[in-house]
Fold:
Amino acid sequence: MRIPWRPLLFVTVIGYLAALVLVPVGAILIRVLAAGLGSVLSELGRPAALHAMKLTAIVATIAVVLNGLFGIVAALVIVRQRFWGRRLLDTLVDLPLTVSPVMTGLAFLLVFGRSGWLEAPLAAAGWKVTFAFPALVIATVFVTLPFTLREVAGVLVEIGTGDEEAAVTLGASPWQTFWHVTLPNIKHGLACGVTLTMARSLGEFGAVLILGGAISGKTQTATTFIYAATEERQEGAAFGMALLLALMSMLVLGVLEWLKAPRRKEE
Amino acid sequence: MNAISSAVRCGTGGLALRGAVAFYVAVLVVMPLAALVGKGGAIGASGIFHAVWAPNARAALWLTFWTAALMSFVNAVMGTLTAWLLVRHEFWGRRFLSSLVDLPMAIPTLVTGMMIVVLLGPQSALGGFFERHGFGIVFATPGIILALLFINLPMVVRAVEPVVRELDAAEEEAARTLGAGDIRIFFQILLPPLLPAIATGTLQSFARALAEFGSIVVVSGNIPMRTLTSPVFVFGEVESGEVQTAAAVSLVLLALAAGLLLAVRGLERVLTAHRQL
Structure:
């Protein structure tokens, strides 16, 4: 008797995914609706909440821009150049993926915090880092460092140097080659990397909590706002913001899936 | 040399780019990690050992380790099955299911924790039911494993999918015509080429689980010796000013993560070599 593998597989996998992913997401939606959409929206309209959202958006944008630029340049350097230390650089940029957010926070605290390495010179210059805006940016830039780089590097490896070589033989300068040949070719990878960076920035929690301190109205991002609201038993605000973040993340995911789709058809 | 050297590597231009990249990485990656290693190592090997062997720290490390391991095992199995289903079977809703697999990566881990608390917390219908039968989920270890399973869902699936896609159907058909049964075919023909990819994905999810903070701090209740994991333990130490202990334990976890990263790298090299054959 042949075991009906196909139905078994279907039931097992779909059941697992439904229980693990769909149900929890649905639960939070129901919870928010149960608390009353009106009251949740009014909670989210309060200054502290609005500020948290604005802060998250600004920090995420900065991370996208900085790591986007870094990603392009570093990808070109790592993929197209040969130099001593290239492997090391390649490994170093992947480190942020393996470091726990708590350790990220601690590490930067040791550099910028009280009696930290850079604390004295920065204080002398009047720059506040920890428990201030710069801390949030630094933490977020760290955790999203490799995303754009990896996407662009992948594309560069795949397309090879043919186009660029042709441009050079036709007399293009390095800048012209980059701007008119390389850049359009990596556009897709860049878009994917930017999307991933955005998604990760929205969700960053541990590092910004330790470095920023979640000071309401000053260093509270959307995630630390949720944490603070939970601690203060303000369930409406906490779950409302959580749902908002979940929806934003799903939106970003949707964009990513859409970006990936045309390529799948090419395969 | 070829034309590319002049386009990208040329003298000062290429060097400037390299320098800029190196500087960015030095300031953002090397500096903080060096500070962490320096602080953690300042008390010497015996100091680190004592910090890590203290009852709370030790219990936290063990809890982190075994929950990550258990989750990784389940994830390896279910991830492989999911990848198999997504690649080998056409069905309505396949695209949706594939997006579902990516969802945990997009959702902030803190939100994941809250979803689980809402669904299975003591005040919920489901959670209350389990609790009355003596099986707590939230504020107990099952909650931790559940959160980890959710967050690491895509790891194994995405690692295994491309390999399943490239499996040669001819080998399978040949085995079948020679009379091999389903089980034999699975273990001798299908599984071996998948193993490096499964291992890569599993190691990645294991490493991720060791570092997980956002969801666990909400879900586990952070009870020392019972549901306190290492990242949450380190967080507590930092908040209470015990930076030295925090750094020492972090060092141990970092070393583990670095080791895992190297293992994954090695496996990926095996994988690419294998696929080029």
Remarks:
- Chain A touches chain B through 90 residues (CB under 8 Å).
- Chain A has two domains: 1-35, 47-266.
- Chain A is about 80% helix and 0% strand.
